[in-house]
Amino acid sequence: MPSLGRLHLVTDTRPGRDPLTVVRAALGVAGPELVVQVRVEDSATDREAYDLTGRILELCAPVGATCLVNDRLHVALAAGAAGGHVGADDLPVAAARRVLGPDAVLGATAREPLAAARAVAAGAGYLGVGPCHATTTKDGLPAPIGPDGVRAVVDAVPVPVIAIGGVTAATVPALRAAGAYGVAVVGALSGVADPARATAGLLGALGW
After folding, report:
1. Which parts are annotated binding residues for Mg(2+)?
2. Fewest C-beta in 10 Å: which of 1, 96, 147, 163?
3. What DSSP character marks residue 29?
4. From CA 205, how far away is CA 174, in angstroms rounded?
5. Cα 22 off chain centre by
6. pLDDT tens, per residue, the chain with 208 residues
7. Where does 2-[(2R,5Z)-2-carboxy-4-methylthiazol-5(2H)-ylidene]ethyl phosphate bind (predicted)?
8. Contact 151, 178 (CB under 8 A)
């Protein structure tokens, strides 16, 4: 598996958002330390997801950044992404690993130690853990687990833990202190006027 960057940017494709501009700005600052996870709205077609992934891959390749696709693993394979990420309602981790093959990057979502350990045993190479804090980016999320919840998962698994959910530069130090390898953000970059500056702030908080 390729080395995993510590800052994960999940694309925001809600109406009025411009994911490519945000990705371009973040890549200009973070380079290979950025992982771009292509997540599209449920209403988006596979063709739309494929086209967006292809354009993001073109941006990632020159700087050595990693591109993953959320949920739609067939799109990840077709576009040539490095791998994918599956949530609780997506394919089971073991099935996702069979789809992607042994060498692809595969992340899974977990929020407590037992589920995290099962996901790793099934083939997950990293875990997205949260929500750490309250967030309005995604509806229907469970209660935030905070840094203590992150630490509980970190202590249970041998793979990188990426904290997600309401993450800002101000909350990163506590998450890193809890053992998080890195963080994943949506609104912290897609909802700001200067995503390049925000990227620099997040990297600084991560210790880069």
Report:
1. 71, 90
2. 1
3. H
4. 10
5. 15
6. 457 999 999 999 999 999 999 999 999 999 999 999 999 999 999 999 999 999 999 999 999 999 999 999 999 999 999 999 999 899 999 999 999 999 999 999 999 999 999 999 999 999 999 999 987 766 677 899 999 999 999 999 999 999 999 999 999 999 999 999 999 999 999 999 999 999 999 999 999 8
7. 135-137, 166
8. yes
Alpha carbon of 198 to those of 35, 125, 151, 186: distances in Å? 15, 27, 25, 12
Encoding tokens for residue 203? 């990297």
* Feature table: binding site: 37-41, 70-71, 90, 109, 135-138, 166
Q: In order of start, what are the domains of the chain with their CATH numbers?
A: 7-206 (3.20.20.70)
Token duo for residue 181: 């390898």
Residues in contact with 76: Cβ distance below 8 Å, sequence separation at least 6, in sequence order: 53, 68, 69, 83, 84, 100, 104
The two beta strands, 161-164 and 182-185, are: parallel
